[in-house]
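From the shared-data thread, chain only:
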Amino acid sequence: MATIHINATSRWFGNVVAVNGITMDIGPGVTGLLGPNGAGKSTLIHMMSGFLAPSAGTVTLDGQTIWRNAEVYRHIGLVPEREGMYDYLTGGEFVLANAELHGLPDPGAATAAALATVEMGHAADRGIATYSKGMRQRVKMASALVHQPEVLLLDEPFNGMDPRQRMHLMDLLRQMGSEGRTVLFSSHILEEVEQLATHIEVIVAGRHAASGDFRKIRRLMTDRPHRYLVRSADDRALAAALIADRSTTGIEVDHTEGALRIQAVDFTRFTHQLPRLARDHGIRLLEVSPSDESLESVFSYLVAS
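Structure, as tokens:
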């Protein structure tokens, strides 16, 4: 069973640090690489697949250095986020070319099997130029699977897929993980990771932020302080009522917005107490909206935890 070991690995481009001192192991099963756009996910995957050399540290597969190691490449399949396809080829020709590059004994049979796996056999003779985004994603998947790799790396694989295609790909990745293959996929969408990954790694601004099963990370996200913008008929009276409640740790009157900025540390209690206190004090609530529910704010909290 294949394991990728990333040890104190960094990658920079000029003065820009894309990956900063990350250490983690990616083993058998399905792992989600979660982080906001620009976090360094693609750079990390490119180092794991041998397309980029680490600027510092090491990236190995079962103890063998991946960078410039053709033998290791035989065990890795990559589905990049960028297209990088040849529109003048048919889908079948594109997958066949990869089968031949790997020196497979029967590239034609391997191509047919890979296309059937991703349900693209019916479109094998069509030009890639005629494919939808979802079809392009699936033929890239077939190309990555044609040599039956032990390790599969996917960068934002669900982009452009319709719901049926997404469900089929999720089922396929779950099956591969249950077979003992090492599957890693990146995403900035929490729900995708929640539905599929048995283990997740979170990176933010090039740094390793959290690691573990999804429930553990989700708990950290739920327990973080929540910030709300609240408008009411009497902001000062509402602030006085809320500040005495243990669900909040900070309340600021924002005169510019004409609202309260509230930091709640007990999310469940706050959501129950706010309408109750407003009712008890005869205060009408005009607006209650979260002010920090972006993934970036969630991930930033994980980094500081």
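The first helix runs from residue 41 to 48.
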